[in-house]
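As a warm-up, study this chain.
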Amino acid sequence: MKKLIVFVAALLVSVAAFAQETNKDANGNTQYGPYETNGFWDNWVVGLGWNFPSTTTGLIWIPSYTQCGKPFVNGFAIGTELFALKWIEPCYGVRFGWTGMQTYRAPEDDVVNLNYAHADILWNISNQFWGYKEDRKFEVSPYLSLAPVLRSGKSLSAGAGAGVFATYAFNKKWGLFGELGGILADAHVIGHPADTYNFWKAEIGVTYSFERSNWTRKATTVAAYTAAVAAAKAAADQAAADKDAAEAAKAAAQDSEKALADENQKLKDELANSHNYGDLFDEPIVAYFEIGQAKLTAKEKEHVKYVAKNIIARGENVKFTLSGNADSKTGSKKRNQQLSEQRADYVYKMMTEELGIDGSRFTVKANGANDIFDSPELNRAVIIEKQ
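Now compare it with the structure written out below.
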């Protein structure tokens, strides 16, 4: 029987050891308190179970006997366990319980009902060696026990003992417990004043955990607060960076707009100071396009529009030819012809629809791939020439 008890205890410890994960910090150290959830009403567990008592020699077998005129058959003795357990912190707890059992007394050859109250100090080795883990299923806790009141009939005694208390959690509320323990008492409690007596029990039962049955470290709360502050600061820094980037982009756009306005004003001043408009009409106006494009960039469009408004629009009786071109170095012949037509049509619509110049003043033609200039990018153009 002793070998069986030792084997079961070792098995429970082994299962707990291999089934659990450790709770380590960044440096590999096991985490403990201080904890927020260690108030008086936190981490209470109650249990109800049944025990199979024994003496040093083995399980108690109750033979046939007669009590109150009624015969009792042979069988193992069975007792009851009721306790309330308060975990002071993840590694240590205090349990208050009541144990009821039967024992067989020889040579009197009768059955004794034994009851005792006990207080136990538990050491949770699962949390001690592998760190607290809230969703842990198995836990093993050796304990030392003090039984100040043992009663059998009218006999009173006191005792002390030890044991192993193991639990398995189904969920956060309900679980099972198993226990192996014993009490060493003065034997006169069962009528043998000359000897000491060992009461052993193997128990199994159910447990129920009340609210706040976990351990929240204060350091965790501080870390969460620190992380929240850091996240808020990072968000604020990002918002400030985005604001700076937006302001920089706005300033760059304003600088670009000012440079374009200054350039247009310069051209306007040159045109205003020129008195020989006839000479201006003799100079072709060239609108340059990007490769593969049939629309002018915003800057190029502004240049052409300004020149058109101040030169072409003034010469009401002067007619012009719009010649669309593409470079022969890129694209197929068909594509270049298409681009030259689209570019010429684009400039024609800009002159007539956007600037309101009479369309009869323009002759539109498409030259396709036409290498007028040595540089390919200069050939991607519409040339506006006086007829």
